[in-house]
Specification:
Belongs to the nonaspanin (TM9SF) (TC 9.A.2) family. One of its GO terms (biological process) is protein localization to membrane. It is found in: Golgi apparatus; Membrane. Pfam families: EMP70. The longest helix is centred in the C-terminal third of the chain and has 39 residues. Strands 2, 3, 7, 8 and 11 form a five-stranded antiparallel sheet that branches. This protein has a four-stranded mixed sheet with strand order 5-19-14-15, with no helix packed on it. A two-stranded antiparallel sheet has the order 1-4. The two termini are 51 Å apart. The chain is built from 16 helices and 19 strands. It is of the alpha+beta class.
Length: 622
């Protein structure tokens, strides 16, 4: 077992983890007139959320055949299918107008079915994504009110006008280069200007085509056969932008100024509220501890009641300890994975230039963090007086991953049915399943074994044999109200960042401000811990000692707001109307909400646990 686990771990790190380094991230230098390869990544639409590979439509294929790039795990899961194209581009050698893969007399014939498929994707506003030296293409727009130049990833496959569909069959590739010696050149920008030119307007020869400035667009008739000509032009521009700064225009596709002000506003509000909560709790606790430790009669203490009266039951193990420790262990695993991934990304190791690296790193880190999750869950299970540690370890290793894997497996059937490149291949699914069963599960069992053998956490008070009766609680301590009240503060710390994360996921944008994300993550941890402490303190003051599950569920209340905000985002930002895209959205959103609940709930539980041990260790218990 040990040998098999080690072999699978080495295979996973060596084969799948090459997402940490992607060829093309290092500077690539071209000589003058050297061939510059143009590759296609995929076609995407924010309306359908179903990516398709480039040659899913009848486009021109290269003469030497299609060659697909070997991809890492993150690229496969993102639906990237990087392949060569028929565009012939040479460094610093402009091309006026050239036919792509045919001559004027033999255009590409599209059948009625093929034309219908193209028209359907144009109506769903699909964008085509190309690459040159790992640099994605961008389309430049000028804002009408401010005359500001903005960039958008990819170029539009076509457009709809007067209920007629037109395809962009002419591309003007605008490539910028930087050179210091006029010998070695580096590509620093890749823009595309797409236009539609009717077949009858194109003239010239095979090597030099032409069409008038004012021309008719090329219509796609979904109820008839179509003849299409594809043309392109290449323009080279010298640029002062150095290679290290060539990603700047892509990373400025969002309004950074609004992002800055929103983040600063969130930080100020959360720090202010956290300061108030901390001050109130410290003052209240000092008064309580001083009163309990004072030389007062027993009758006066009982009259005042409070959290001291439940000292004999506060550490009583909760119901369903296996399930509880499994959820906490999963939360620890998610926390460690998220923290390390954000730190690596903040240090620039998982930049957008490393395609798929972020997702690959997250998956691998989650797998290997099973060791820590098992250790923490095992020691907690020992503290809760559990005896069946093997069964509890199995729950910890399989509960959350089984939910994610089964949900993704179910959704994958619908993606397969749409013939989308977003469908995970069977071999990749088997690789992920092997990582889970052969690496994550054994590591969780190993960590659980050592955690269970460790001495349990020491509690400052003993637990009574007979449980104390819980009095009737005030209305505002109802679990649902506590859940909603506790979720506001953590959600306020991160809802602005959530908007940009959702935009990166569902609108195919880059997310790159990982420094801000790290700060927000720290604020989220602090706010979850503080609000959990406050809610548990009020619960104990009401002499309700069933705080274990309440701390886990209540502190994860911000997940309810995340779910509500996801629905709001769907209704205001996205235009999804079909069944399968809606199913994908709600399926992946459910995974995200459950993951966020486990993360914040675990943070809140450990904060409440440390708080309770601290306050009961500070009072005199007779």
């Amino acid at each position: 077992m040990w040998r098999g686990t080690l072999l699978v771990a080495v295979w996973a790190w060596a084969g799948v983890a090459r997402g940490f380094y992607v060829p093309g991230v290092a500077p690539v230098e071209f000589k003058r007139n050297a061939p510059v390869e143009v590759k296609a990544v995929k076609m995407t639409s924010s309306q359908t959320q179903l990516p398709y590979e480039y040659y899913s439509l009848q486009f021109c294929r290269p003469k030497n055949g299609t060659i697909y790039k070997s991809e890492n795990l993150g690229e496969v899961l993102r639906g990237d299918r990087i392949v060569n194209t028929a565009y012939e581009v040479y460094m610093d050698q402009p091309t006026q107008c050239k036919l792509l893969c045919h001559d004027l007399n033999t255009p590409i014939p599209w059948s009625e079915q093929e034309a219908k498929e193209v028209a359907d994707r144009i109506r769903h506003e699909y964008y085509v994504h190309l690459l040159v030296d790992n640099l994605p293409c961008a389309t430049k727009f000028v804002m009408m009110d401010t005359q500001e130049q903005v960039y958008e990833r990819g170029y539009k496959l076509g457009f709809v006008q007067d209920d007629k569909v037109y395809i962009n069959n002419h591309l003007r590739l605008i490539l910028s280069y930087h050179t210091d010696d006029d010998v070695n050149f580096r590509v620093v920008r890749f823009e595309v200007e797409a236009s539609s030119v009717d077949l009858s307007e194109i003239g010239g020869t095979a090597d030099q085509c032409s069409f008038p400035v004012k021309h008719k667009p090329q219509e796609v008739k979904p109820t008839d056969t179509n003849n299409i000509l594809f043309t392109y032009a290449v323009e080279w521009q010298r640029s002062d932008v150095r290679w290290a700064s060539r990603w700047d225009i892509y990373l400025q596709m969002t309004d950074v100024q609004i992002h800055w002000f929103s983040i600063v506003n969130s930080l100020v509000v959360v720090f202010f509220l956290s300061g108030i909560l901390t001050m109130i709790m410290i003052r209240t606790l000092r008064r309580d501890i001083a009163r309990y430790n004072a030389d007062e009669s027993l009758e006066e203490t009982l009259e005042e009641s409070g959290w001291k009266l439940v000292h004999g039951d506060v550490f009583r193990p909760p119901r369903y300890p296996k399930l509880f420790t499994a959820l906490v262990g999963s939360g620890v695993q998610i926390f460690c994975m998220a923290l390390i991934t954000i730190v690596l990304a903040m240090l620039g190791m998982l930049s957008p230039a490393s395609r798929g690296a972020l997702m690959t790193a997250g998956i691998l880190l989650y797998v290997f963090m099973g060791l820590i999750a098992g250790y923490m869950a095992g020691r907690l299970y020992r503290t809760l007086r559990g005896q069946q540690w093997k069964s509890a370890a199995f729950w910890t290793a399989t509960l959350f991953p089984a939910f994610v894997f089964s949900t993704c497996f179910f959704l994958n059937f619908f993606i397969w049915g749409k013939h989308s490149s977003g469908a995970v291949p069977f071999t990749t699914m088997m690789a992920l399943f092997s990582l889970w069963i052969c690496v994550s599960v054994p590591l969780t069992f190993i960590g659980y074994y050592f955690g269970f053998r460790k001495q349990p956490y020491e509690h400052p008070v003993r637990t009574n044999q007979i449980p104390r009766q819980v009095p009737e609680q005030v209305w505002y301590m109802h679990p649902v109200l506590c859940l909603l009240m506790a979720g506001v503060l953590p959600f306020g710390a991160m809802f602005i960042e959530l908007f940009f994360i959702l935009s990166a996921i569902w609108e195919n944008q880059f997310y790159y401000l990982f420094g801000f994300l790290f700060l927000v993550f720290v604020i989220l941890v602090i706010s979850c811990g503080q609000i959990s402490v406050v809610m548990v303190y009020f619960q104990l003051c009401g002499e309700d000692y069933h705080w274990w599950w309440r701390s886990l569920i209540t502190s994860g209340g911000s997940a309810v707001y995340v779910a509500a905000y996801s629905i709001f985002y769907l209704s205001t930002k996205l235009e999804i109307t079909e069944f399968v895209p809606l199913l994908l959205y709600f399926g992946y959103t459910a995974i995200m909400v459950v993951t966020f609940w486990l993360l914040t709930g675990t943070i809140g539980f450990y904060a409440a646990y440390l708080f309770i041990r601290k306050i009961y260790g500070a009072v005199k218990i007779d």
